[in-house]
Write a structure and sequence with these properties.
With 382 residues, the protein is mainly β. The protein is built from two helices and 30 strands.
């Protein structure tokens, strides 16, 4: 379309000029050529959609109503907008996975268990479906990389997590290099994503909240004592709590909790709730670092947290913020650093309603001599 507009502008610009003595195609021919190219692209896109629909609707697709847990591990295609069951037997999905097109999969954990889909195999893909049921939707593990095992590289995409679920995605030991994209997490029972693995990429996802936990939490693995590293989050929206829904987040948990993390970039994200970096253990007795090299780029905090900061930086943590905005508060600082933490602000600001005399973004200089704060212009404190 932009090409067509450019051609029209060319026509308008040339209409008063004398005819050019040239063998170049006429303006009408150029317009026809552009229209033909655009139409060819439309036809190609329509052909791709038709091919996908044919693939998903062909007899090779799994019949609606099938219990997917009874099928051997392989990539399966589900009928569009059909309903399936997954009555877990405790067996692992060791390969393949399944892809749908608006399909619904009702999860039921094995007796005495809590997991719906238990993933343990290379390159498993689960996408295009709505997951529901009284289960923690997906639990994924890998194999020890120190023994030469490759990262499993799971791909979970275009999923919808129903509010009936007790949890979303649990990335446990060595579930490294997982990609989660274009997913919609409803208000579920526990964590939206709980991660103890490395190299998680989270892209273009929305989180409606939790009934008592976090949208996203990174923490040390209880078995291996490994601290997750290299988190990348791009263009996601985290909401916790939701105003007007008192049953959501009754304990006031964070929307994002980076308890243990060695390196994270959160870019172009929106937070409707507060964010916590590090462990809340007493700094006088805990001298270890728990989260470092945490970077927020062009992120936006939207809602106030009465009685507390919107970004809590725990002891011995290092955080950098660039191009971030916070709402102004008459009573609370936006950012609160604990002992021995380091916070760098570059080009950050507050949005202030007329007549409000807000507290600054961060107390500077800080009364705690162990806290290091760098304010880089044009950061504005109020």
């Amino acid at each position: 379309m932009r090409k067509i507009i450019a051609i029209i502008a060319t026509i308008l610009g040339l209409c008063s000029l004398a005819p050019a003595q040239t063998t170049q195609p006429s303006l009408g021919q150029q317009v026809d050529s552009i229209l033909a190219a655009e139409q060819a692209q439309i036809f190609a896109a329509q052909a791709q959609v038709a091919a996908l629909q044919k693939q998903l609707a062909n007899p090779a697709c799994v019949a609606p109503g099938t219990d997917l847990a009874t099928l051997p591990s392989a990539r399966r295609y589900l009928q569009p907008v059909a309903t399936y069951a997954y009555n877990s037997t405790g067996a692992q999905i060791t390969g393949g996975g399944f892809v749908g097109y608006g399909s619904v999969v009702s999860l039921k954990p094995v007796a005495g268990g809590s997991s719906g889909l238990f993933v343990h195999g290379p390159n498993v893909e689960i996408g295009g479906v709505k997951l529901a049921g009284p289960a923690f939707a997906i639990r994924a593990i890998g194999d020890d990389p120190s023994k030469g095992n490759p990262a499993p590289g799971y791909w979970f995409h275009d999923l919808s997590f129903d509010g009936s679920l007790s949890g979303g995605i649990d990335l446990e030991q060595w579930a490294d290099s997982t990609r989660i994209s274009h997913c919609n997490f409803g208000i579920i029972g526990a964590q939206g994503i709980y991660c103890t693995a490395d190299d998680l990429t989270l892209n273009d996802c929305t989180f409606a909240g939790s009934q008592g936990e976090h949208c996203l939490r990174l923490d040390m693995n209880a078995t291996t004592k490994h601290r997750p590293a290299n988190l990348l989050v791009n263009h996601c929206t985290f909401t916790n709590p939701i105003p007007g829904k008192p049953t959501n987040n009754p304990t006031g948990k964070e929307c994002v909790a980076l308890r243990e993390c060695d390196g994270a970039i959160l870019r172009d994200c929106d937070f409707y709730g507060w964010v916590d970096v590090g462990q809340g253990t007493p700094p006088a007795t805990d001298t270890n670092w728990h989260a470092r090299h945490i970077v927020f780029l062009n992120c936006r905090w939207h809602t106030l947290r009465p009685g507390g900061a919107l970004l809590q930086v725990r002891h011995d943590s290092t955080v950098t913020l660039a191009g971030c905005t916070f709402p102004g508060s008459a009573s609370d600082l936006a950012i609160m650093p604990d002992a021995r933490s380091t916070v760098t602000l570059r080009g950050c600001s507050q949005s202030v309603t007329p007549g409000l005399n807000p507290k600054p973004l961060i107390q500077f200089p800080n009364p705690d001599p162990t806290v290091t704060i760098h304010l880089v212009a044009p950061t504005t404190q109020s």
